């Protein structure tokens, strides 16, 4: 299996990249992003591309892939709906439209979050925007499309948040990880569980398009 990975330097992307490289059935990973991963591995190739809204110059390098794992995302804190939509909806759908044209037999996996609003009508701005993003991705003619909705993610195996105060919070919380994993199985997952679940769904699909934390842990 050949996998495209967008957002490999974020916490979720780092988790997915690690599991892709460990999986014997994944033969190649192409990481596409605005910055490099800083990693070297025989399976890993990278494209550093500043304008992800326009992939025309790198389209020849994006063909013949079996799956795209799309892990790009930002926090909505302090952002207007217009700016959040530009990063969350416009960018994601632009990439997806390009990829479904180049790879019609591709599986597309998008990481959203617990509480995403599929009705697009709720009070929460981020949840509405994520909901519309999910809905419109599911309308595209991919072989399969799956929306991963993790709740709390506990980073493991050296995975780190790029946001300083997030990482401080995770560091302080680490002694409680075993308790959280046992006590909140429907709301908490670990970075390695999330990564493995995404790779497994990319390979084999799943019975439903929306995949919550309890599904991630089950997979």
Automatic annotation (TrEMBL):
Compartments in which it is found: Membrane
GO CC annotation terms, alphabetical: membrane
NAD-dependent epimerase/dehydratase domain ranges (all copies): 3-111
Membrane-spanning intervals of the chain: none
Major location (coarse): membrane
Pfam short name (any one): Epimerase
Record protein name field: Epimerase
Organism: Paenibacillus albus
């Amino acid at each position: 299996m050949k996998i495209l990975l967008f957002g490999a330097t974020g916490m979720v992307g780092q988790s997915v990249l690690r599991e892709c490289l460990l999986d014997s059935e994944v033969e190649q990973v192409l990481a596409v992003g605005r910055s490099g991963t800083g990693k070297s591995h025989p399976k890993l190739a990278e494209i550093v591309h500043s304008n992800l809204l326009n992939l025309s110059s790198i389209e020849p390098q994006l063909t013949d892939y079996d799956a795209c794992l799309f892990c790009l995302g930002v926090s909505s804190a302090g952002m207007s709906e217009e700016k959040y939509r530009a990063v969350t909806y416009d960018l994601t759908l632009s990439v997806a439209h390009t990829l479904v044209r180049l790879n019609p037999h591709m599986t597309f996996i998008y990481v959203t979050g617990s509480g995403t609003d599929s009705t697009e009508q709720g009070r929460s701005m981020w949840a509405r925007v994520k909901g519309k993003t999910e809905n419109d991705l599911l309308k595209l003619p991919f072989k399969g499309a799956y929306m991963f909705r993790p709740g709390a993610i506990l980073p493991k195996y050296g995975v780190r948040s790029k946001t300083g105060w997030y990482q401080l919070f995770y560091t302080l919380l680490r002694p409680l990880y075993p308790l959280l994993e046992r006590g909140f199985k429907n709301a908490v997952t670990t970075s390695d569980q999330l990564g493995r679940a995404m790779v497994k769904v990319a390979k084999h699909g799943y019975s439903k398009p929306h995949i919550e934390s309890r599904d991630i842990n089950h997979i």
